[in-house]
């Protein structure tokens, strides 16, 4: 796993934040050898806003008539879509972290990383996944690759803005695995500039409980929407990536650097009439932004190529690609 980051842009002068994460997809289709696409999303907000966001998450369920709502219940309800977007637009101190992995993307990314690793200098940090116990889930190494992307991105953001991010994850049977891998990457990344204090900046707090569990339903809706966005628009992104993987542009084992820009697209962020299938064009401004105020959507495409969709505005966006 290479260390791939972009320094996210300004947030506020807040010190202690909560990040509540959930995911969508990722289960292997029955009787296949493939891994399904998955997306992850998290709500990031000052800890003193927990009560307010919980109240609004609870009210959203009242509005659409089900307390245990997920993405589909919200997206298929006119009221649900309106209230969900209103929540994101009115909570001015709320930000969103998202990530998308295409079908089989992480398996191919692992292969690309290992192939490139042999050709780069050997004085790298070993980020490769090694199970410390008998694997109970063959998708663990694939989800581990995602964690290896997420941790440095959030760590650089927290360091740049002098923040402490307390990370919570919606309840999962493998929550201890997630916590172990987050802490593993935190420990490994401390040798890099801008990440020496990551162990103080990003703190894994375990499963969501109480009011955080209700807030995680909002994260589930966002994760589902990001997955829907790429199902509709993924080929518009993948077709603009360099087929070679930009091998040799720089040594990603030694340098934490911004991903090179490979395309600028002066087209709508989402094509066609997808109001009920993709809300991203209506809330992208809440997604974490870089120093150029481009809102960043990290991804790994189905061929294992990593990068970002960097949204400048609704009809102008860029594709950044990280070298293999």
Strand count, sense and barrel status of the largest sheet are: 9 strands, mixed
Which regions contain 5 or more consecutive residues with pLDDT less than 50? Answer: 1-12, 28-33, 129-136, 251-256
- What structural class do the secondary elements suggest? alpha/beta
Order of helices and strands: EEHHHEHHEHHEHEEEE
N- and C-termini, Cα separation? 10 Å
Count of strand segments: 9
Strand adjacency order, main sheet: 5-4-1-2-3-7-8-9-6
Could you say which overall geometry the principal axes of the C-alpha atoms support? globular
Beta strand %: 15-25%
Number of helices: 8
Kindly state the mean pLDDT as a whole number? Answer: 83
Q: What is the total number of structural domains?
A: 1
Cα-based radius of gyration, to the nearest Å: 19 Å
Helix residue percentage:
25-40%
Account of the protein in words:
The structure is a single chain. By secondary structure, the chain is an alpha/beta fold. It has one domain (16-321). It is 35% helix and 19% strand. The protein has a 9-stranded mixed beta sheet. Helix 1 (50-64) packs antiparallel against helix 3, helix 1 (50-64) packs across helix 8 and helix 4 packs across helix 5 (140-160). It is globular. The N and C termini lie close together (10 Å). Residues 1-12, 28-33, 129-136 and 251-256 have low confidence and may be disordered.
């Amino acid at each position: 796993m290479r260390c791939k980051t972009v320094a996210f842009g300004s947030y506020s002068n807040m010190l202690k934040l909560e990040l509540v994460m959930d995911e969508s997809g990722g289960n292997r289709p029955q009787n296949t050898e493939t891994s399904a696409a998955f997306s992850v999303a998290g709500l990031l907000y000052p800890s003193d806003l927990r009560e307010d966001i919980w109240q609004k998450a609870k009210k959203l369920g009242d509005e659409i008539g089900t307390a245990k709502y997920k993405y589909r219940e919200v997206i298929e309800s006119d009221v649900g879509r309106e209230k969900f977007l209103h929540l994101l637009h009115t909570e001015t101190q709320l930000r969103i972290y998202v990530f998308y992995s295409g079908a089989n993307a992480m398996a191919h990314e692992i292969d690309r990383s290992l192939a490139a690793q042999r050709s780069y200098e050997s004085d790298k940090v070993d980020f490769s996944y090694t199970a410390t116990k008998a694997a109970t889930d063959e998708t663990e190494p694939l989800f581990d690759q995602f964690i290896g992307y997420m941790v440095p991105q959030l760590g650089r953001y927290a360091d740049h803005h002098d923040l402490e991010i307390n990370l919570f994850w919606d309840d999962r049977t493998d929550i201890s695995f997630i916590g172990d891998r987050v802490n593993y990457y935190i420990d490994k990344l401390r040798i890099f500039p801008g990440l020496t204090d990551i162990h103080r900046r990003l703190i894994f707090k375990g499963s969501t409980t109480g009011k955080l569990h209700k807030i995680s339903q909002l994260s589930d809706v966002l994760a589902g929407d990001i997955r829907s966005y790429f199902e509709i628009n993924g080929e518009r992104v993948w077709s603009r990536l360099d087929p070679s993987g930009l091998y040799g542009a720089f040594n990603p084992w030694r340098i934490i650097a911004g991903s090179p820009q490979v395309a600028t697209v002066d087209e709508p962020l989402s094509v066609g009439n997808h109001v009920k299938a993709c809300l991203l064009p209506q809330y992208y401004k809440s997604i974490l932004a870089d120093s150029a105020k481009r809102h960043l959507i990290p991804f790994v495409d189905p061929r294992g190529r990593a990068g970002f969709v960097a949204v400048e505005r609704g009809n102008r966006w860029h594709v950044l690609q990280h070298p293999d």
